[in-house]
Amino acid sequence: MKKKSISLFFFIDAFGWEVYQRNLFFLQDKIKDTRRLETILGYSSACDPSIISGLLPSEHRMWSSFFYSPHTCPYRWLRFLRILPKSLFNRGRVRYWMSQIIKKLHGFTGYFMIYNVPFNMLPFFDYCEKRSIWHEGLVQGKTIFNRLDDKGIAYYVHQSGTSDEARFVRLREQLSNASIGFAYVSFGRLDALMHAKGNAGPQVTELLHWYDQQIRDTIATAETAYEEVSWYVFTDHGMHNTTGSYDLISEVEKLGLKHGKDYVAFYDATMGRFWTLTDKARTALTGLLSKHSQGRLLDDAELKQLGIFFEDRMYGDLIFLMNPAIQIVPSYMGSKRMPGLHGFHPAEADSCASLLSNRSLPDSLTRIHHIYRLMERDVLN
Ligand SMILES: [Zn+2]
Q: What CA–CA distance (Å, rounded) separates 265 from 315?
């Protein structure tokens, strides 16, 4: 006997609107409606929680991964490693394993990576995503998964650390025996490829053909077990090709301020975030960053409009965003310029996200956190 209905939410990381426009073959004969969606300024650490809760970062309080909070920093003990040679910790492998060790030691279930954050800086920062947003929840507010659990509705959500291929296989297993009413699966290969190669080219198109086929097969499997199949293919942001890089760290350090005494800084790949601890630092940093050729300070009105204003300045007193396509190099996220990068202003065309479906999409769907409304419409009502 066929089970009534299923909703499939396929998240392809970085499958932005502009990427889609260059690959319109994608599920072409199956799509009923599409939308270009505004992303949320930030990275997956901000976008994923918003999509699965319908809330903006200012509401769920998850924006960038690291925030200044030396008194709650769980891995303060890292400061004792300062005596070890710096060169040891600059190796990617060592940093990967250190991340895994910290994660185990402190029982973090969320995505945790220390990236390129200098070891002597880590004790200044706490980490936002300590718990799995998929399997546990957010800092504030409920996710679609929390709500499905409350209602006792069975669903499938990807397991961290598994390949895209394994995720499709696992989902199809669940669909063929009609054991679920909802599925949300994230796929990361396209994002990784475009970071390495840029946002266009034969490899990107080839990978999208692979996703096209995988999704077709998955929909076909669902159609054999369910009477009604709704599906959505979407993402959180697009991808820019970088055109240049800028050494913001050196420039800030030339101000002669004392890090940890006058100010604390965190350098994401596209943003510098500054906590000013003295008036001197506030004056010097504002002076440098308010009339800058490579980027600009975001004022409170704009932060509010973007949904990333925090009254307690949790993520920084001053938020400096780079101009489109210019990467901060080196940053605490990486030491080299990447051909593809996201995290630039949401108003840029290459920042925009996409949403494709076999269902009609309401006109009110304009920003990525609105995708949540579709989940609500399909399974919570
Ligand atoms: Zn990415």
A: 10
